Amino acid sequence: MAAFPISFKATNFRYRDLLLGGIGVLFFFVLGYYLKETQQYALFYREQQQLFLFDWTYISDILRQPGGFSVLIARFLVQFFYSLWAGVIVTSFLLTLISLLIWLVIRKIGNYWFLFPVCFVSCLFLAVSLLDNCYHYEGITAYFLMLLFLFVYSAFSFRENKWFRLAAGCVFVVALFYAAGAVALLFAICAFLYDCLMRRENALLSFLYIVLALAVGFVTVQLGLAGLYVYVYTPLGYYETTVVAPLVHYAGWLALPVCLLVAGIVRFIEKGSRYSQIAIGLIVAVIGFVCFQRNYQDNMKSDLNDFYRYEYYTVNERWDELLKASARHIRNHNDANYLNLSLVQKGELAGHLFRYPQFGPKSLIHIPKDKTPDVRLAHVLFAMGNMGAAQNVAFNASLALNGYNPTMLKMVLQIDLMRGAYAVALKYIELLEKTWHYSEWATAQRKFLFDDRAIEQDAVLGTGRRNFPNEEAFVLFSSPMDDLYKILDTNPADGKAMQYALSYLLLAKDINHIKEFIDKYYGTPGLKTLPVPAQEALIFYSDYYHTLDEDYAVQHGMTKEQLLNYQSVDLDYCKDHGVTQETIGRFAIFKEAYGKARQSADALAVYKNTFWYYLLFAQI
Q1: Alpha carbon 192 to chain centroid distance?
Q2: What pTM, to 2 d.p., does this model score?
Q3: Are 184 and 210 in contact (CB under 8 A)?
Q4: Distances (CA, A) of 79 to 30, 64, 71, 145, 401
Q5: Which of 70, 450, 456, 601 is most buried per CB count within 10 Å?
């Protein structure tokens, strides 16, 4: 009869563990959904900020530095984030494991089911930290290793020999510092709290762990292995050193000792009301979730997330999706650059230019005032055929946070092949062949080494080689249009460069140079037909100068000879240079509507997709 309550109690515990396990699985999927909706492209971009090499020299260099093992694990995992699903699943699994390890430690202090939600708070703040691209992924792997050490430390009963416990704890502190870096101090604090809360024999002696962690960090800085003490004692050890870190990155660290203290408090008042215990656990969990939500909203940057999305589509050459995503809300020049990049890759830039909001020539290519290199600019310059400038920008942009940006490295390699710098290209090929994702592509480039004919026959490399002008001074010394003229003088068959050049003049509202451009290039392989916006510009040019008052023109510095030359562009000229009768008819209707509308933009909104509307009403 006595066995019945024991069996019943065991069954009860089994059902409770199954329920908590189910909640953990549910949390994994909910967290995965959250990461998919908020960070899948940011996780992909982390892969673009490093190049993991299967090379012993590379691996040994990482392992020799404090925290190198966590760095190695992080970079190994991140290399698979080229797949959106891999980034989400791996990160969700790692964060869920962190929550599970916290629970396995807390339940030793007090096996209270209502404390289970508290264990999720730390990993939620770590998820917020991942919103910041300057927060390195090894911050997650180091935290996981720290909890693994803490679980092992808590799993053994050292009651028989307190000195053995202290020796083991000290070894854990030193080993963890070498393996994972700054989290060794967090481990020392939590191990000390755990011993105190568990009332282990001479628990106060565990304070030695904290002293040891501080001493190891001090020696590391003194030996020059770390620059500042904050890098060996705080989460800043996993943050980009040149950027000021937000306080939210400390939250994940602070949440762990708070969880331990909450479990200790609940255990202390165990003889009190059960409802009081549950209330304490729930209050802490709710506060943690509320703080997570607020920090998420403060740190979620929509502009940056859009950039990650655009870069994903660009790297994978998914131009339709890039067009759809960037056209959804064009707020600045960066959005417009990616939009127009997708259009030129689809062969629709000049023809569909005014279907979308444009802000002058910078909508095609925006060069920062400080000329800071970035991957967006490199993509645009490469598409323009400006290989000299693209290589200059891509080389600087290839130096990413954790090594090399693989996409920029591929671009530099291709341009070296175009240049015929085969020895340099071979070095990049050998480097990329040591990677998991890019090795096959790199090996495929070997067929172009020292083979000019193979390069000239390749669609991308051959066009790029023909785009190089006679002179070498070719890295955006003046305006992008000057470089585009040089490219087309060298290779008028480059359709993308032709579209960029014509679109640049259209967005600059430069109808005089548009006419000269059409004179020179209409009928060439790159401009066999005239896009509709260019037709609209040419017919406007003809009408404008035929209706221009001669006295007004002379008063504004125009000679009669110049006016007569401009007026030579009549309807026959327009038709001979690609202007269709349909465009001529639409212009007549637009001109009449413009006169009746008294120059009102709202009244002419039906024409907003035309060059005429852009010319007359758009501010650039």
Answers
A1: 39
A2: 0.89
A3: no
A4: 24, 21, 12, 20, 14
A5: 70
